[in-house]
Amino acid sequence: MTDLLSTPEPAAGLAPASGARQVWRRLRARKSALAAAAVLGLLVLLALAAPLLAALEGQDPNTYHDALVDSARGGVPLGDFGGISAEHWLGVEPGTGRDMFVRLLYGARVSLLVALGATVVQVLIGLAVGLGAALGNRFADSALTHLTDVMVSMPLLVFAIAMVAVVPADFPRPLLLVFAIGLLAWGSTARLVRGQTLSLKKLDYVSAARLTGGSSWRVARRELLPGLAAPVITYAAILVPSNIVIESTMSFLGVGVKPPTPSWGQMLSTANTWFRADPAYVLLPASMLFVTTLAFTVLADGVRVALDPREASRLRVGRGGRESRKSRPGGTA
Amino acid sequence: MTAGTEPLVSVTDLSVAFPTGDGVVRAVDGLSFTLARGGALGIVGESGSGKSTAAYALLGLHRDTGAEVSGSVTVAGHDVLAAGDAELRALRGGVAAMVFQDPLSSLDPYQAIGDQIAEVYRTHRKDASRRAARERATEVLDRVGIPDAARRARSRPHEFSGGMRQRALIAMALACEPRLLVADEPTTALDVTVQAQILDLLRDLREETGTGLILVTHDLGVAAGTVDELLVMKDGRAVEHAPVRTVLDTPRETYTRDLLAAVPRLNVRRKVVAKRPVPSVEGAVEGSAEGAADTGVLLEAEGLTRTFGRGRKAVTAVEEVSLTVRAGETIGVVGESGSGKTTLGRMLVRLLEPTGGALRYRGRDIGGLKERELRAFRSELQMVFQDPVSSLNPRRSVGESIADPLRAAGRLGDAEIVARVRELLERVGLDPGAYHRYPHEFSGGQRQRVGIARALAPEPRLIVCDEPVSALDVTTQAQVVRLLGEIQRDLGVALVFIAHDLAVVRQVSDRLVVMKGGRIVEEGAADTLYERPGHPYTQGLLAAVPRLEKAEAAA
Amino acid sequence: MRQLPAISRRVAAAAVSVVLLGGAAACGPEKSGGDAKGGGADGAAQKGGTLTVLNRQPQKQFDPARLYTSGGGNVPSLVYRTLTTRNRESGAEGTKVVPDLATDIGRASDDAKTWTYTLKDGLKYEDGSPITAADIKYGIERSFAAELSGGAPYLRDWLVGGDTYQGPYKEKKGLDSIETPDDKTLVFHLRKSEGDFPYLATSTQFAPVPKAKDTGAKYAEHPVSSGPYKVVKNENDGEQMVLERNENWSEATDKERHAYPDRIEVKSGLSSAVINQRLSAGQGADAAAVTTDTNLGPAELAQVTGDKKLASRVGTGHFGYTNYLAFNPKAKPFDDPKVRQAISYAVNRTSVVNAAGGSSLAEPATTFLPNQKSFGFTPYDHFAAGATGDAAKAKELLKQAGQENLEITLTHSTAQDFETSPDIATAVQAALKEAGIKVKLAGLESNDYDEKVHSLDKQPDLFLAHWGADWPSGGPFLAPIFDGRQIVKEGAGNFNTARLDDSKINDEIDEINKITDHDAAAKRWGALDRKIGEQALTVPLFHPVYKRLYGKDVKNVVISDWTGVLDISQVAVK
Amino acid sequence: MTTYFLRRALGAVAVVLVLSAVVYVTFYVAPGDPARLACGPRCNTEQIRQVREQLSLDDPLLTQYWHFLQGVFTGQDYSTGTSVLHCDAPCFGLSYQNNQLVTDMLVDRLPATASLAVGAMAVWLAVGIGTGLLSALRRGGVTERALTWLTLAGTATPVFISGVALLMLFCVYLEWLPFPSYVPLTQDPEQWAWNMLLPWLALGLLESAKYARLTRSSLLETLAEDHIRTFRAYGVRERSLVARHALRGALAPVIALTAADFGSIFGGAMVTEVTFGLPGIGQLLVNATQKIDLPVVVAVVVITGTAVVIANIVADVLYAVADRRVALR
User: What's the whole-model pTM score?
Assistant: First the structure.
């Protein structure tokens, strides 16, 4: 029993914590991740509190202010920086004079919902297909892999347009966008999951779990999914902003949210001609999108690290400990 | 040590500390030693003793890693700790060269072996042409015994066998004619026969080139025949430093004696302990033949075959293997890498589906059952895996991993499961409070114990242990083997013990099976087989086991 | 109506372009600056140089049979001469019809049911062979072939036998209602009186096609030029075209086309933003560039008006066009005239105009007819809502109708075209909200929108609509919308969305069609429009105005009220 | 090896068949009448019926699809009115809109799209791998930060915004570049590159963040591998350590992703093409979708699908070549 005694007793002072709490503890230790989470929390809060804040400003997202725009000059807002004033904190929209502050907030609701919702759909389908391909038999693998190829090959926007055209007009549009993007753009996630699963599957602990006599689903859920979490979360962090970009492109092509509903994508899609005449109109939604992207990326990095219990003590494990080297699958020897 | 000349290596009061989240870990603590020109020193100790850390310090490999290094290290006149980057680079490989443990991962998988050696050569001989470098690579490959070296220099590492890769690594070390070779566990990942060849090679090279050698190993048996002096390390300190014979014959420290005792020996018969009554195999599985229960046959393989791949590329890993495991007995399966023993083990617990033959568990053929149908049997057939790292899910606490089979069975409540897991932890010699800790917090030996606890959890009738100790150092090996023996005795569970090392298996097995090329070449009662091996292959295996006695004789 | 501009608009919409088409009405002092001949760079126009045309829409169709153009189009008109053509003058003068291949604009007889044309002397194709009356007849006949569909419906509807004729490939015999007694004379026999026939004769179907050179569906690849330029390159589906001088074009017989540049390069498939930025930057070849299908958008207008130099390079154009709200007066609640009137009162045209790009790009409309004399514009405002709507009056009318909590659905297209687009719909929605009307918006993908609003059975009860003229006359503007005999019951070809079938109105339309004096007819069209307006079957919203930017080396800028775009047959770059 | 390619080719055919079938069904179900759109804005019911008959749109879906397959595999003949037009296999039919051979239209437009894809790929590889390298090796430097932010901003900005921003910056304010106007490579390579530069940047930056992250994580992983330690212990300089030993392994997953993205760009770059007015198949697809020009849409989707599948195969082969331990299966 010498080897037991010789191991330094790590973190002796810490009470045993459940998995989730441990992850949270590790996450808390990363300042950048916390800051990112705070930013995202604030965004969500702002989106949720949009009606309150609108009331505070005294504006609503759909009221036209014809007097605030210069009709003879294409409807450019009167005043500086897109018409910023005490009544309109971030100015007004060109052409209509609608309040930018409130529209950005309401836009956040739609954009975050669509981006997160679509990401969830993509990840769920990606997981299901990727796991199915990696764990199923030859036939299932080849069928699902080809299905994935088909999905990746589909020009997303064309089919999104077709889908939006086919679905009845009274179906809630943000939800439709969630499904259109989610159901069409999961190919790369599925590929990622399949690849990761194939390499995880080779590990002995998965074999050990099979020997417990639990169902395949149980094995996948308990042994594979936690291992997939890190790469999938990292990837999802890129999916979120790219889904907002897709949403905006769909607005650009006329199949985005229904007017008068604002979304960041909708605002961007009408903004690209206003670069010179009203730069604020472009910069506001663009910077919201940038901040969101940055926050998701940083947070995902943090979560990825926090999910891995080894990360906390990576330094101590160091490089080339005798045992750790054996982990690599043995090649063709 | 030859008086009057400056020693090749001189280490004084060396300390290496790694700052971690929980404080500073002192891996090496006040170590001092010297090595004369052309001398050979073995640094031995179990894992965590700081022996590799000390070896790395000789080449200044801790620089820029965050480690705190103090003391002084002088190699062939170079002050390693004070040397500038350029001087240090010149030292590495040029003056002192390192031979690493795992030859597969230590070579660049994408490049031809000859090119890699040539690159090292050109790093130190700036004026050498590419052509000259390639010639040198061929030359050293030839020297280390790679047949047809000029052609094989163009091969990539995965095209080499394990032994050839290790030779290639040694060739790389020789490329620039260094004055010191530092070999870090150079034979641990190899089969015994190959290990013997590599050790012979190191010996020959020393004699021929006069290079100094520092051999880092956990196995006194490996060091015994290869070095002149032994330095025994424990917890970062030297506990004993003396000529090899002195250490082997008259070890001063208990620790050294423990290390010596742990070296697996072939000449130790298995202690026959009064076995507990073997649990009867009542309640036989539905549809099983009545007779099977009476004979005590638990698992029966008949003409078991497994082929991977299809068509021309098909490889048959196991061919026509027949084997019977009775309740409560231990069968050792021995063979070198590629002999198909792991594949066989995995088929026995049905992690792999046989492509031919029959596998009967308590009379019922389970060879072709689907995953769903197998579930009923899963808990009765368990496995302990070779790799202590990949066999535990790094993201789940060890308690949860052990509890897994219990939860899957769903018979026990939460509190009962926790109690049972604590009991199991205790049974395998771990702190019951370790429930909530994660695998990375454990040493390799401890992780293997966790793996054993997990296998025990569902109260199986058979456990297949697939090289459970081959990744562990000798002391730990001995402990784990002892534990398995105890468990087998106490619980009456049947064991199939797979190993590449005959010495290890000897201590636990009732019967022995020797495999080669996917087939069984010899089979018999353990003692008979060890004392009167019939097949030349078995004889070869036995001969290759390093012996402390041999070293004594040689010295 | 609907010619090229209308088509391109729709297309642009759904897709992609950034679209800067604005809408709107002839602004008051319309003959300003850029409108007049000689706008642009100083100095007299001279021959030579290369003109670059930067466009959004590629010239996908180039077969004269398949083109649907107003007055012969822009690029096509450089290659195809027609019996008559539009007068190449700026402003209202440009709405007149003038002779092209023919010696006059046509001689009517038999109550304008028979029209006779005589060809000028010395007309030649690009290969030097003479143009004959038979070639013009053959060109018209081709347009009846199913393979070459796409042209305007008038030939089918007007020519005797046109409704059943299937084109020269299936019926070798040809169309009897076009007579060619000799090489120089053409006589057209119509089913009913059509005083506007000379306008129809400006379309490319009236261009000559030598039968021997006809390659059917592939003719567009190598059309035989009768105009000042011939096609030397036509790539990527009409995206890249190069025209060079047709040496056999006889300038003496063509008073309308100037053909100053030696070479014309058409580059299309560009986005509006890029086109306008390139025109304003004017680097290299872009200095001698114009566009024939792209307007300045609101954002660009805001930018251009801040820059005097740029502002001097903007021409203003008008084109007979009205954007309006269309009702189905047969469906509840719009069967109640009070509801339709209430909505007419509630509409805030200032918001709508702003949504359409502001007062420089759209002018509020209270009449269905465009505000141009050639259409017979007669001002009226039956439901005077002022600049920003009269919510009180609207509420009162709704109360009378017992519809105080009115909830309605407004259908629009999702095209970003400043016409039937979401922006306009939301402006209407916001205004009606003031009057207590709750409006739900239903946006349809543009094909879906087009098909639904033009199918009687699927037509929404309230939707954003637009209408433009195939030529500057009241007939093609009013008849398809309000002539009860033009209600199309099957398919998606109905434009009389109000389902108006009033025999008095139908008779008046017939009467006016007999008049060959355009001014006299225009007066009667104006009066008819005013009368129909009383029924509040539509709510006119705005007439678009076009602001066209052109390169700094461009001279002799002509923008007629017929097309509203810069006429490239007049432009000089030297 | 032959079996491998044969099997992959069969898989590719299956994928493309499914894709084309999906397109047929989608467009069959979607609203809009292609005959009406093909006929012109003011066709009457009878004319539309004639066009529909001419385009065989009245045939059952399966028949139409069968004819499409026939065309692809054996070619097809079409009447132009005056003569017969033969369309060799693979024939994707005639465009509903202008009776052009779809194959010709595609051939005309492939160069622009291919140019865009190749250049954008170069940009995202250069920027992405560069950023990834810097952030793995020299974390915290000014260049590293700037590049990381640039790639993130690129990911967060739709091309119709970033494209116009680039045009504004380089063509209007700085006047360093001409407004992009596609010049074929074969005509003038220098002009081709100058004109494509902005589209490459706009599209490349959209993708580069993904590559930066992948490169970084992959490189860090490789640098932690044992063979790197070996060469470090033999005095090899860090620079050549990375260049000769780490990069190759680290870039294997990057290659795989590149190939996949390269394939999907063929159908996915429509916004870039529209923004910059490039005569590529993305633009063709946009127009065809609006006009329900089924033969063109199917053809583009088939081309895209083929490109994706081929790119996948290339990726797998490259992966296997890069890492000989991986067997093709």
Answer: 0.80
